[in-house]
Amino acid sequence: MGGGIILLAEHFQKALVELGMEKLEHPLFYHAPVAIRFEIGGSESVYLDTMTNPEYISQALKRAMMIYKALPQSPNVLRIDGYPDEAKGAKGLIQTICCHAGLPRPHEIVLDILAENDEQYEQIQLYWDLSWIAFQPEKLLQEIIKSDIGGQNCFTSNVYLLNTNCPVLYYLYDDRGLDVLSGARKMILPLYHKFQDWILDYDRVQIDSLFTSEV
Asked: Could you read off the pLDDT of 89-115 as tens digits, one per residue?
């Protein structure tokens, strides 16, 4: 555990329960009672010859930032999950994450052992209290967008920006999509109306039904 902040993991978990989930279960959109899924990638080609198309990244980042700025309240807790390997180890992974995202050392680090198919592996959960740092969301969101198309893959599907007071969870999982989860439909109804054109068509019927039905 680093810094002087404690209990961020507990605050995160409490807010998660208020979002209607007992744990982070992927895909988040399909496990959350109230959520919107947006398409982030846009219409540009992902690659130009053998390199990533900078215009594609720019357009995806613009969408991600517009939705971030339109959240009912700015996130106050950042969580990034990591899975150390033998080459870097936990220390090396944390250094990579902090360096590329422009973040200081995490305020809180939680170690967990996960099991899947009779195999165990280590997970580290890194937490930051965003009210204590000069947070640059654009830099972090750009790293997430690049993560699966030539960037650092440790940012793919592992970054959670949460306001624990609303609560609202902003989850940009890679260059293709973004989920926004809420504890109450009215909290993110303005996002539904403002960014109608970016709602993922595959899930549009489910999303429209949630936000246009009578309660």
From this structure: 899 999 999 999 999 999 999 998 877
How far is Cα 153 from Cα 158, in angstroms, rounded to an integer?
Answer: 9
Q: How many other CB atoms are there within 10 angstroms of residue 88's CB atom?
A: 14
β-bridge partners, 179: 37, 171
pLDDT tens-place string over residues 45-67: 999 888 999 999 999 999 999 99
- The pTM for the full model equals 0.93
Nearest to 161 by CA among 139, 192, 185, 186: 139
What percentage of the chain reaches a pLDDT higher than 90? 83
- Spatial contact of 180 and 35, defined as CB atoms under 8 Å apart: yes
Give the start-end residues of each E strand in 14-158. 35-39, 47-48, 51-52, 77-82, 108-116, 119-129
Question: pLDDT at position 86, please?
Answer: 63
62's enclosing H/E stretch is helix 54-69
CA dist., res. 60 & res. 52, Å (int): 13
The Cα–Cα gap between 174 and 1 comes to 28
163 within 8 A of 134, measured Cβ to Cβ: no
Tell me which residues of the chain have a pLDDT lower than 70.
1-6, 86-87, 214-215
